[in-house]
Amino acid sequence: MKDLNLVPTFLWFLLLFPLHKAVANGVTPEETKQLRDEVREMFYHAFDGYMEHAFPLDELRPLSCEGEDTLGGYALTLIDSLDTLALLGDRERFTASVEWIGKNLQFDINKTVSIFETTIRVLGGLLSAHLIASDYATGMRIPSYDNELLDLAEDLARRLLPAFDTPTGIPFGSVNLMYGVDEHESKITSTAGGGTLTLEFGVLSRLTNDPIFEQVTKNAVRGLWARRSKLNLVGAHINVFTGEWTQKDAGIGTSIDSFYEYLLKAYLLFGDEEYLFIFQEAYSAAMHYLYNDPWYVEVNMDSAAIVWPLFNSLQAFWPGLQVLAGDIDPAIRTHTAFFSVWKRYGFTPEGFNLATLSVQHGQKSYPLRPELIESTYWLYKATRNPRYLDAGRDIVASLQYGARCPCGYCHISDVEFHKREDHMESFFLAETVKYLWLLFDLAVGPDNLVENGPYKYIFSTEGHLLPATPQISLLQEHCSYFGAYCNRDSLKEEPNASDKSADSQETNGSRVSEGWVRTRFPLDSSSFKASPVSGLIKGLCPGLTHEQKYGISYLASVDTPHEDNSAKQKDTVVQSQAIVVVSDQISNQSLSGDGNDNNVKESTERELESDPSQS
């Protein structure tokens, strides 16, 4: 990223980091235990306040000690809190909550809900709790539990599916749980709204053996990525029918943030290298065009011209994502810059202007967001540097003295004057206190499900625990190709299906009888050959690029000279060398090809040709 021609970087540090003059005393081991217990008490202060004064309404009004329905009217905060109860080892309340939800919750209601919020909060909360309650290995199995939460999750997801019925595959932003998409529903959605569904829907597919959920969300990601700019940047808002970008501001914060997050996490959880490839390209472009060490700005996705020299609070997840990607050094510097804003105000405002070094007008609130705390936890886990415990202590102090209310914790409507607002988002219990507790428990000597449990966990963007169990993560158990999940029931019925029948299935729009698109990417050559259903799985043409293999190459680049772009790409690739999750396995394989893969690529290119945003 070129110089912003704003305030020189060294002046930013002089102005923003007065805390270096008096570094906080290090957190002692005894204080760490006290902080962990204090955070636990914070959770129960808010959770008990919700259960006493708001349940079964969605969320708590912590000043007036009342409840309000904000999403769908189905005990949102309780669902969002389930895996935090399990993480804290509260078997009694976890069991009681799961049993109540299993008996009382239903989604056959005339409510129009956000696809994004319902997926990450409700669907994710149900799936995470199901995976804990149904598994002896977690230590929190409920003997009487009989998959009630999984059944609810499947019912909810099926009610969300009509939103994906668009020409681009990118879903509408909202859907009515009883009647589907309203005819007057807006056709504009955010990139994060369309691209942050893969983890929850993918897990559901693997648990129910129905690939439709995973496929529609993967198609949504492909639909967004196929419409990226020549710079490999995506905008903030898009028309789900025409594929035109209605807001071309590219950034890592508002409206885009978790699109990047779920690309990497979908690869880590599912092992699907298509997500890794897209992440590598998208991450390299972000670091090349958006990064002005240590800050990030928003630019026009086509020209890379700066449109917003702004730090917004949702960007604070990025250092944590960089830890997962293995890019630690820039994560450390960016976290230091972001935390300096917290130190200045006691909270991070929704927007902080990097040109004026002041709170952005109209963006003065702090709605108890977890992103900075999330990154603090990940950086401490990666470095064990005690300064992140110091940061955690400062955050606890700010929340306790600035946001604590009679029945919970309040939004801060103005970070400069610490004005309180009578609202508490459910994610305060799902994420904010969860990451704080994990930070201090890790320092004490962890004794929890995440650090010492039977599985490695991926956190959803709502902080829900998704375990890398064999059923979820080992594609080879069920199929030998990337990007899909085998329907084992149909395979059992016809285990020796002939190549002829398979070809006839694929010729008909590359769909199987259940009506879902199959992608045919072998996991490795040995499993491909050993597969008992190899007649149903076709290979890839040797010599194709990753983009061509996956049918997601940028079409306009065919008619555009590459000289300048390739030079930029070289710089970008160098910056991405720190990513440790890269695998060249797929490129080293010798794979057989067939014409249907070319058909997939041609179909995607025809769709791009008809997309005015690419002209």
UniProtKB/TrEMBL annotation:
Its EC number is 3.2.1.-. GO terms for cellular component: endoplasmic reticulum quality control compartment; membrane. It comes from the Eukaryota. Ca(2+) binds at residue 461. Residues 1-24 form the signal peptide. SUPFAM superfamilies: Seven-hairpin glycosidases. Keywords: Calcium, Endoplasmic reticulum, Glycoprotein, Glycosidase, Hydrolase, Metal-binding, Signal. GO terms for biological process: carbohydrate metabolic process; endoplasmic reticulum mannose trimming. The active site is at residues 117, 257, 350, 371. Transmembrane segments: none annotated. Residues 493-503, 599-609 have a biased composition (Basic and acidic residues). Residues 493-513, 585-615 are annotated as: Disordered. It is found in: Endoplasmic reticulum. Residues 585-598 have a biased composition (Polar residues). Its cofactor is Ca(2+). It holds the Pfam family Glyco_hydro_47. GO terms for molecular function: calcium ion binding; mannosyl-oligosaccharide 1,2-alpha-mannosidase activity. Belongs to the glycosyl hydrolase 47 family. This is alpha-1,2-Mannosidase. It comes from Gossypium mustelinum (Cotton).
